[in-house]
Amino acid sequence: MTVPTTFWRLAGVSYVQYVTKASSTLRAALKEPAKSKALAQETFSYNKSVWSNGEQGAKKLTDSLAAVGK
Amino acid sequence: MFAQLARRAARPAATAAAAARRQFADAAPAAGLMKLNFNLPQETLYDSVNVKSVIVPGATGEYEVTADHVPIVAEMKAGMLTINHEDGEEEKYFVAGGFSLTHEGSATDIVCPEAVKLDDIDGAAVTKNFEAAKAKAASAEAGSIEAAEAMIEVETNRSMGNALGMAMA
Q: In chain B, which stretches have pLDDT less than 70?
C-alpha cells in the first residue's frame, strides 16, 4: 500500500528543497577533485545596493541576507 | 461525371498522404535504439545520443527504457542510473533525484540536479555523514523540518553506501 505523500512533504519541505538537500548530501561525500568542482555549484552570494532619489547606489558584496537590512 | 467521381475519390487519398507525411520530427534512430538527453542544470551530459537502453531508478521502482517504450514520466530517487550504449558499453551514474520523461518514440529526457560517477564517491565520507545524520535525526523534534532534513541526509547517504556495495544499517 503506497503512502499518498512523503515524509518531507508532511514536514513542510517542498520538492525543490528536498532535491537540493539530497544533492548537497551527495556533493559532501565526493572525493577531490570532483568535490570542489561540485561544491562550486552550491556557493552563492548577494550584492547589496541602496537606492536614493530613484538612483541605485554602488553594489557591495554581502555574505548573508541577515546583514542586508542593517 | 466520371471526372467528378475520380476527383472525389482522390480527395481522401490526398489527405491520407498529407497525414502520413511527418510533421516536425527528427529522423528516427536506427531500429532497437532510442535517443537520450541527459541534462544537469550546470552541464549537458548527453544531447540526443542514440543508446540501447537506460535503467532509471524511479521513486516507485527501477525500470529499463528501451526503444518503443510506452511514454512514461517518473520521479527518480537517489540511486544508480545505467546507460547501455550502442557499442555495448555500460555507463553508470549515481543521481541525487530528478525526473525521467520518456516520450512517444522512446526519446528520453533525464534531468537531475547532480549526477556523479561511482568512482568519485568517497565511502569513508558516506559512512561518516550517515552516522552524523542518524544522530541528528534521532535528536531532532519529530515532524520538524530539521528532522525531515536529517532523514533526507540519512536516505541519500544510505543510497550512496548501497551503490558502493557497503551494508548500511
A: 1, 3, 5-30
